[in-house]
């Protein structure tokens, strides 16, 4: 199955926040109390209970004028995801649609995914079991994978009334983004497609009116070297070593059993032979 992309054109967004409401409703996420931020923005960033946030940015453009920029902020669903690499429990995986999802049955709340996400879109949520013991689970946008499996589109996409978000095949959406950048270059000279190669590209691709840093995004995000070493080298080597060690121990056990059995048979034979000589 071909990979899919959520296409976000920030130049068409009017800041209505319908995407936030749709996400909350579909995923049954609770409301959060937040402090007044002095602007229309309701949350400072995504959290374990708010998987996408509409960001409002005041920016002085190249002509000295003031622009209000908006950005739908949620998980980027990296093709080469740092969160997936650092998870020690293999609780994070890729789906056939390109989305990156968390298996909460396997998640132990270690927080490695939170620490290593270059976009800071994963958070830990506190829970209590029936005995009052506290534990944590990692949460983030799933790109509505449950909807995709039923042939539907992400909830945020379906509710966007300006056409700022679309969902479709990867190649089609990237071509659409590149074409749109050329259309808006006169108004936004710094316009660009944000699909960072340092994380293998993403399954949420943006048309940005300004440089990524203006939106609080890293210019060139990369998977941490430590994550690459851990997932691609240390873990496979460790499994090989564990496998070799296990086989060695098993071999010693079998050899010991055979040796001891042979010795026992020999002793028994000697005893029987000795008895006949008497």
From TrEMBL:
GO MF entries: 4 iron, 4 sulfur cluster binding; metal ion binding
Source species taxonomy: Bacteria, Bacillati, Bacillota, Bacilli, Bacillales
GO terms (BP aspect): cellular respiration; formate oxidation
Cofactor(s) the protein needs: [4Fe-4S] cluster
Entry protein name: 4Fe-4S dicluster domain-containing protein
Any GO CC annotation of this UniProt entry: cell envelope
Residues annotated as binding [4Fe-4S] cluster 1: 13, 16, 19, 160
Binding, [4Fe-4S] cluster 4: 87, 107, 110, 113
This protein's UniProt keywords: 4Fe-4S, Iron, Iron-sulfur, Metal-binding, Repeat
Binding site for [4Fe-4S] cluster 3: 75, 78, 83, 117
Chief site of localization: other
InterPro entries from the UniProt entry: 4Fe4S_Fe-S-bd, 4Fe4S_Fe_S_CS, FDH_Electron_Transfer_Unit, Formate_DH_Fe-S_su
Domain 4Fe-4S ferredoxin-type stretches: 4-34, 66-97, 98-127
Annotated localization: Cell envelope
Cofactor remark: Binds 4 [4Fe-4S] clusters per subunit.
Positions contributing to [4Fe-4S] cluster 2 binding: 23, 141, 144, 156
